[in-house]
């Protein structure tokens, strides 16, 4: 089968991942993140990937934000007329959803959850985890989503909070005297902050870590009467908005081997859906 180009059309950028049709969990061969409106990075990346082959590609698009889907479809029609293009929607995922309006749930949240379910089910990954316990899937981007997936693979909804950049920008709008911390420069925030900039960074960083930790504690509390303490739920981190640095903050209070960072979990979820 021809290679798959999985596409995550987010709020501020588009992410492209190349996969081959191999058995097992999908292996990401290469990826590209493009913030340019005319998709210049994507075009350069495709040229590098397929310089020796003109075989048709299969494109599967997941629209998770405001990046314009039609612009990409126009480019594919114009430049790669033999390729196939399709979109993934919530009904394509073989996963039960216990939410009130599944059609309004972000497809990126569902794809990340499905990718985590399949990753945990792999024989080489399943051993450390209690199969009777649920898991949390944290996608860090423009917003941070903290979603609960039951032990039997049901998507149960979760929490949505501002991403690190959105929180930093909101603080800067409160007062002209408050600088906007650069979240790209927050590999880890110290507390207490000894300058206004350090204090703002600490609030942005530890506020997000604390919110995730509280969601974790709420789930553990609901399970406490049925399971022997201490509970160890796996937490999956993905996204390009600081997933790794938030994972490091949680590692202060939770077992680090249960904090799994899979940066391209949404793209893997798209590939898994395509294989069906």
Question: What do these coordinates show?
Answer:
- The chain has 276 residues and is an alpha/beta fold.
- 36% of the residues lie in helices and 21% in strands.
- The protein has helices at 40-49, 69-79, 107-121, 123-126, 164-174, 196-223, 243-250, 265-275; strands at residues 4-9, 14-19, 28-34, 58-63, 84-87, 135-140, 143-149, 155-162, 235-238, 259-261.
- The strands form two sheets. Strands 3-2-1-4-5 form a five-stranded mixed β-sheet, sandwiched between helices. Strands 8-7-6-9-10 form a five-stranded mixed β-sheet, with helices on both faces.
- α7 links the parallel β9 and β10.
- The radius of gyration is 20 Å and the shape is globular.
- The relative contact order is 0.16.
- The mean pLDDT is 87.
Concise overview:
With 276 residues, this protein is an alpha/beta fold.
Low-confidence stretches: none
Give, in spatial order, the strands making up the sheet with the most strands. Answer: 3-2-1-4-5
Q: What would the principal axes of the Cα set say about the shape?
A: globular
Number of strands: 10
Task: Report how far apart the termini are.
Answer: 13 Å
Rounded to an integer in angstroms, the radius of gyration calculated over CA atoms is: 20 Å
**Class derived from helix and strand content:** alpha/beta
């Amino acid at each position: 089968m021809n290679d798959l180009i999985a596409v995550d059309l987010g709020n501020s950028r588009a992410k492209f991942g190349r996969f081959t049709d191999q058995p097992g969990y999908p292996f990401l061969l290469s990826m590209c993140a493009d913030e340019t409106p005319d998709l210049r990075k994507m075009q350069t990346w495709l040229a590098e990937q397929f310089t020796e082959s003109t075989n048709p590609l299969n494109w599967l698009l997941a629209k998770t934000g405001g990046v314009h889907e039609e612009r990409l479809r126009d480019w594919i029609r114009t430049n790669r007329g033999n390729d196939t293009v399709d979109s993934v929607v919530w009904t394509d995922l073989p996963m039960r959803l216990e939410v009130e309006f599944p059609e309004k749930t972000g497809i990126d949240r569902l794809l990340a959850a499905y990718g985590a379910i399949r990753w945990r089910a792999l024989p080489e990954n399943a051993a450390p985890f209690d199969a009777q316990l649920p898991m949390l899937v944290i996608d860090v981007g423009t917003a941070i989503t903290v979603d609960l997936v039951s032990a039997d693979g049901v998507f149960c909804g979760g929490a949505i909070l501002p991403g690190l950049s959105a929180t930093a920008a909101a603080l800067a709008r409160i007062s002209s005297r408050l600088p906007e911390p650069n979240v790209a420069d927050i590999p880890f925030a110290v507390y207490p902050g000894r300058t206004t900039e350090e204090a703002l960074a600490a609030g942005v960083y530890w506020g997000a870590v604390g919110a995730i930790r509280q969601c974790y504690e709420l789930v553990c509390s609901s399970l406490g009467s049925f399971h022997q303490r201490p509970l160890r739920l796996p937490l999956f981190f993905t996204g390009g908005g600081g997933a790794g640095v938030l994972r490091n903050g949680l590692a202060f209070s939770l077992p680090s081997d249960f904090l799994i960072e899979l940066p391209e979990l949404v793209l893997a979820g798209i590939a898994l859906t395509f294989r069906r």
